[in-house]
Amino acid sequence: xxxxxxxxxxxxxxxxxxxxxxxxxxxxxxxxxxxxxxxxxxxxxxxxxxxxxxxxxxxxxxxxxxxxxxxxxxxxxxxxxxxxxxxxxxxxxxxxxxxxxxxxxxxxxxxxxxxxxxxxxxxxxxxxxxxxxxxxxxxxxxxxxxxxxxxxxxxxxxxxxxxxxxxxxxxxxxxxxxxxxxxxxxxxxxxxxxxxxxxxxxxxxxxxxxxxxxxxxxxxxxxxxxxxxxxxxxxxxxxxxxxxxxxxxxxxxxxxxxxxxxxxxxxxxxxxxxxxxxxxxxxxxxxxxxxxxxxxxxxxxxxxxxxxxx
Length: 310
Hints:
The protein is an alpha+beta fold. It contains ten helices and six strands; from the N terminus they run H-H-H-H-H-H-H-E-E-E-H-E-E-H-E-H.
């Protein structure tokens, strides 16, 4: 069965290897160039941002083009009826088909994630102030990239079984993976560990600051109160008064910034943040639950084939 799986999906695996191989070559030469140039010509700006944006689409594309068709093509074409008459068994056939493919894409994606870290790791840190927990690069590094690729594959497999049409299953995979990624980035990741709260105003730029607010006498202060206090000394408040402060010309602050003025008059600014040192704990937490979700999805796929596919 392993030989049959290889024969059926060797072109697909070759395509994955070609895409990730080309991206890996780019990362290798980019990493060498960055180190030879001392990071002067690239910085942590548009080059990294564009590269990260392009690489973010790799996991969902693998899910759509590898995971979705793997069983949907058999169901759509009707060839599964012949396959299931060969005495191999539905569940065994499904496991033998999915396990090698899942292992292959996970291993290759894991290697790619660590190569990305090697390439841009020195830029994601103190030198350029980009937090290692930043959403633009966090899931492209370490074990997280392997986890997101595996879960994309598993989503594609389940979508293919449920929809039984290759193209709609590919589209559903892209939508489902994107929704999971957005929910994780906006809501889940920040709660992997309880955030720290500090009154320091000089947090390192590599820390992930999630929220800021003002207090006085231990009690929260509304943005309207901050607005009123600052307007008395000629300071305009832009946007959220607790976060964005700008002094107008001729203000009565002297040499103080608006933040310093508020602190001098008894206000305290508190910040809720995740320190950059939590990068690897967050990586293993995210990789762990993505692996668990992937296994659950593939178990569900085996169950659906065994019980419901006819």
